[in-house]
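User: I'm putting together a teaching handout on how multi-component assemblies are represented. Below are the sequence lines for each component of a complex, exactly as they appear in our records. Could you produce the 3D structure of the whole assembly as structure tokens, so the students can see both representations side by side? Please keep the chain order the same as the input.
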Amino acid sequence: MAVAVGRPSNEELRNLSLSGHVGFDSLPDQLVNKSTSQGFCFNILCVGETGIGKSTLMDTLFNTKFESDPATHNEPGVRLKARSYELQESNVRLKLTIVDTVGFGDQINKDDSYKPIVEYIDAQFEAYLQEELKIKRSLFNYHDTRIHACLYFIAPTGHSLKSLDLVTMKKLDSKVNIIPIIAKADTIAKNELHKFKSKIMSELVSNGVQIYQFPTDEETVAEINATMSVHLPFAVVGSTEEVKIGNKMAKARQYPWGVVQVENENHCDFVKLREMLIRVNMEDLREQTHSRHYELYRRCKLEEMGFKDTDPDSKPFSLQETYEAKRNEFLGELQKKEEEMRQMFVMRVKEKEAELKEAEKELHEKFDLLKRTHQEEKKKVEDKKKELEEEVNNFQKKKAAAQLLQSQAQQSGAQQTKKDKDKKKHE
Amino acid sequence: MRTQWSPSAAPVTPLSPLHPDDRHPCALGPMDPLRRSPSPCTSRPPSPRTPPCEMLGHVGIEAVLEQLKIKAMKMGFEFNIMVVGQSGLGKSTMVNTLFKSKMWKSTLPGLGVPMPQTLQLQSVTHIIEENSVKLKLTVTDTPGFGDQINNDKCWDPILGYINGQYERYLQEEILITRQRHIPDTRVHCCVYFVPPTGHCLRPLDIEFLQRLCRTVNVVPVIARADSLTIEEREAFRRRIQHDLRAHCIEVYPQKCFDEDISDRILNSKIRDRIPFAVVGADQEHLVNGRCVLGRKTKWGIIEVENMAHCEFPLLRDLLIRSHLQDLKDITHNVHYENYRVFRLNQSHALPRGPGWVNLAPAPADLTATPGPWKVRWQAHDSSDEEC
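Assistant: Of course. Below is the structure of the complete assembly, with chains in the same order as your input.
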């Protein structure tokens, strides 16, 4: 049966006017309801030296006390510690994962400091890629662990970026959305802060580090994003302690010379960070991670494995040939390995056999020796026995002879006495 | 979680402005606290049983809903619907009534339009906008279905078309360099028109429904219900439901995909009334001073939007106002995944590498159906299923 499908091309799409209320304007709400029931995932990576205030800032941002003990400075290398928390606000459930770099910047040799971080990020992409490539997959249920935002904590030196910072950010900028922030900003005076910020931004630009750009293509958020971008990197202060200011309690840090209010825009940029990170761009961060960074990773990974969409002749199914070749390669290797293993096995068996034979021979010899010894001993014993018997015989004979002599002597003695008696009688 | 579904014609009251994201559902970051992560990567954070944290003040997380909404409204939505049924059952009129616009020129029978000798699928795409929500709607019609003398395998072209759309999407998805937003042409819903015989489902209907309900979401409706009285409708409906159960045909909303108890209650109400007895009309008449869509006959005017007359509002609410997103989700998460598993398993001659399998060339015969549902929602493997 012939099937003819008449499909108009894109240019022929017409806008149709509706003559009444259809009701699909509830679509966004339907979608949101679905998302709300599924919940959201958000993963933040905090990169910064030990003691720079990462945990405190997270506590301040999300208004909770995430239990964590401060790290020591004695870590032998950089390792990443991830913790997940479930937050709920009205009807929105957020599964928040905070990844901390423990021991960053503490080593004497910091050459490899960035490596564990890059490996971790890649591992999350890899896990997602594996799930996506599975035959039976469940992506709608998948707990997304890919890092959506990386907060890079810059130490408040007041001068410029450290070379460790530059190197790390350069390695991370193609893998994750980087948002640089100046930590412990209450140690920098206002005029120094301005110079510091512009120095940092110019250094980032001149080194080609691509930090996250707040999106300015949608009119609703373009304005606020544009104004906020000017203040990058945000100079933040974190605090979970509350101080009485006026007649309210507010999060602040108390010094002998004054109180630094966390949520006061004149004192620090914490409010801006919270706006940008959570209230305005959370969804965009997640989308960028998925559509840009993850796709880049996926493309690189698949190309590395030797797959291409088209070969030089643009034949779309050349993948099959590539795969056949790879498969044969793999099979060949497998066979070779199998052969090697078999040979090794045979060799080992032979060796063992030889050993065992040796041992057996030895045992036989020992046995023979023992047997002979035993025989000899036995013979000796027999000889001795014979000798003994002979002696016994001799002895018996002697005894018998002696007894005879004795009895004879007695008899003769008796006879003699009798004779003597008779003689006496006759006299 | 479904919004309140009531048979009235009142639209769903929107919540505060929210922005859904209509792309990969994976971008929505779904969460299941009880899921054990199977990945061997030791550096993954522990996913199950994360401790719930008390927040001491307002953080602003719920703004993410708004962000979601903005993004989705900017991207626009897509919906593809297919209508299947014999000619003369009012399919084109129904589509026009559903979307309140002239999608098709409804063909009047016997007016010189030649009956197609073979089954031809025709698609038309329109962009409709309502309250700044843009919807790209594609309607696929199947004139010639069931019209021949020998209707054997008349479902093959339809199955082929549906699987062809899945194939298209799959090819796009396995590219190395993918598009940001893969155009979704997969059929999200298939409305099957049952002729109002009043008896029971015909063998053709049963054959078709059996094959199709495994590949796509099927919503059967009783067409031209104005030829049945209310009692006849009810009896017909019960017999159809009985037939569907007897042949293990699961129409939308499928029982096995109910996510929680509120879903189940909501959907049970719907399942009780399926198939809806509908009447389509695209002409307006004056009734009691109001202008309503209806069919004018000598014995009265049948109002399409009047629940007492026909169940068209139920169909419209189901398809558009409350379950549209759900239709798309089930198509993407279940039917498409089934097709994908089926296709990837076809390449089982090639060994599976570290996870990436090459697709065998697309089969010439795209009518092979994957078989009973293998993919189900993770949390409901133990739910009561009837077949």
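A couple of points students might notice: The first strand of chain B starts at residue 77 and ends at 84. The first helix of chain B runs from residue 63 to 75.
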